[in-house]
Write a sequence for this structure.
């Protein structure tokens, strides 16, 4: 009897400790403004949302940067200074992300994203641009370029979503992370070991995980942002059905040799399907190449754009 009571008390203490350790409630956006805004941060209203962005440099050509799903404007921190020396660079937090926050109607369909880009670029008076998208941002860049070919000069797809590799098995989603109870649990709790395990997939150099961890936890702790991932997965993201052969733009496809999210094989598929494209590979990097190998990314991007 005493053993059973001791075991029950011990189990209760372990569970309590785990919950305290994992407690990460959602907080108002304004609590993160000072920490994650830049000195030149601006906000512009688009479709009823105040969108966080910056515009840097005074170059003749405009370069727009679009981050990936679950990412944020800070993914470009290690390349922006160099890029803004040659171009007028615009970067922003997409809907459902970071300091922009959730889409008002919780609509994260492809159409909603492209419609958002259309209004954003119109309000920023961007008539013509080079477009660089990383990960899902690359996929959105393709969709936008197909709809508005006249507004895009050159296209850069960095570690981009959209490629298909027949020789690769379709990755299985974690049953734990996608369980309905986990969705409810994650509204107020983010177990660090689970978050870091997922972040580990982004990097070849695992020492980068701790550096990136707090950024991710803070950004998804902004009220409404945690619903993004749950809702995002409910919308179709066709790959083969996207008519990439109709892209007329000079296009640079960049993959990383250790990217397990959007693999080199997927990058090769994009290259084959896009007529006027070239393929470059970043060595010694995982999915988040702008953090792991910013100099190498800059080298291939600047060579392509010059």
């Amino acid at each position: 009897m005493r053993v059973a009571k001791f075991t029950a008390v011990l189990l209760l203490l372990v569970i309590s400790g785990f919950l305290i350790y994992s407690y990460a409630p959602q907080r108002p956006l304004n609590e993160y403004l000072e920490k994650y805004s830049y000195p030149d941060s601006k906000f512009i209203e688009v479709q009823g949302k105040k969108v966080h962005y910056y515009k840097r440099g005074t170059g003749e050509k405009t370069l727009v940067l679009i981050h990936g799903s679950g990412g944020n404007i800070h993914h470009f921190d290690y390349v922006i200074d160099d890029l803004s020396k040659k171009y007028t660079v615009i970067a922003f937090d997409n809907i459902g992300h970071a300091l922009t926050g959730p889409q008002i109607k919780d609509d994260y369909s492809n159409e909603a994203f492209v419609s958002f880009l259309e209004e954003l670029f119109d309000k920023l008076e961007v008539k013509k641009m080079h477009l660089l998208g990383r990960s899902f941002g690359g996929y959105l860049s393709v969709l936008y370029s197909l709809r508005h070919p006249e507004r895009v000069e050159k296209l850069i797809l960095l570690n981009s979503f959209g490629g298909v590799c027949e020789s690769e098995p379709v990755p299985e989603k974690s049953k734990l992370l996608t369980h309905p109870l986990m969705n409810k649990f994650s509204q107020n709790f983010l177990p660090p070991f689970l978050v870091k395990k997922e972040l580990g997939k982004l990097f070849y150099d695992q020492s980068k995980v701790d550096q990136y961890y707090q950024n991710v936890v803070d950004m998804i702790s902004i009220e409404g942002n945690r619903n993004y991932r749950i809702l995002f997965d409910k919308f179709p993201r066709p790959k083969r059905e996207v008519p990439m052969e109709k892209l007329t733009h000079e296009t640079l496809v960049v993959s990383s040799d250790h990217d397990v999210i959007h693999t080199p094989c997927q990058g090769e598929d994009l290259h084959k399907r896009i007529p006027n494209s070239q393929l470059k590979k970043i060595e010694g990097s995982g999915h988040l190449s702008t953090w792991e190998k910013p100099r190498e990314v800059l080298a291939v991007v600047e060579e392509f754009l010059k």
About this structure: The CA atoms of residues 136 and 239 lie 12 Å apart. Confidence is low (pLDDT under 50) at residues 13-21. The first helix runs from residue 2 to 22.
